[in-house]
Specification:
- By secondary structure, the chain is an alpha/beta fold.
- The protein has a single domain, classed as Rossmann fold.
- Helices cover 22% and strands 32% of the residues.
- It has four helices and nine strands.
- The chain has a nine-stranded mixed sheet with strand order 2-1-3-4-5-9-8-7-6, sandwiched between helices.
- The protein is globular.
- The two termini are 20 Å apart.
Length: 201
């Protein structure tokens, strides 16, 4: 799909664009589109007609990746999702595709150029809420890659582009292991699993 490039705008111009885009809303949060946010790097959305499990998965992704915000797709086409991402000042669009009600693949796009940077099939998925209750409170997080294995270079690049860093003060850790694909396990600072997904190119 060809995405029309957009020019960078000054913050005050972006604010005006928000008012024009969302009408009488005082800000994006007031429009009901997303929750109140600070800086945005990553906009997370999905294909249309998502299931409750896919919506839960989007909540986990928003929780894990720093400076991210979830945008409900609704009936919007992809061009409209890109426009919202630009209005929010996002750099990357993380799109979850759905097949038969389940998350089937991940795609990452450059918001400005529209270029697709990554595409991975989701071979397996396990949410912590599948087996116990969890509260995904929306606080500022620091994501680190704690360990990785040879054969998952592209997955490592994906995580780094989505905000993974190297520091001792991490709140979320990623463990990447190769086993007929790349298995990514996200854990909290107490080593409790948050999310597990098996990815393949």
């Amino acid at each position: 799909m060809q995405i029309t490039p957009v020019q960078f705008v000054r913050p005050q111009e972006r604010s005006t664009g928000l008012r024009q885009e969302f009408g009488v809303a005082r800000n994006v949060a007031a429009s009901g589109l997303v929750r109140p946010i600070h800086r945005v790097r990553i906009v997370i959305s999905s294909s249309r007609d998502t299931s409750s499990r896919t919506r839960s998965f989007l909540n986990y992704l928003e929780y894990i990746f720093p400076f991210s915000v979830k945008v409900n797709r609704g009936k919007r086409n992809l061009e409209e999702v890109f426009r919202i991402a630009r209005v929010l000042g996002g750099e990357l669009l993380l799109l979850v595709n759905v097949f038969k009600g389940n998350p089937s693949s991940l795609e990452v796009y450059d918001v400005i150029s529209g270029e697709r940077l990554y595409h991975f099939l989701i071979q397996s998925l396990r949410l912590r809420s599948d087996y116990e209750k969890i509260s995904l409170y929306n606080t500022r997080r620091i994501l680190c890659i704690r360990e990785t294995e040879y054969g998952c270079t592209k997955v490592n690049s994906l995580l780094i582009d989505l905000g993974a860093t190297r520091t001792r003060e991490c709140t979320v850790h990623a463990e990447v292991k190769f086993d007929n694909g790349c298995n990514v396990r996200f854990v909290d600072s107490m080593n409790r699993e948050i999310l597990f997904m098996g990815l393949a190119e």
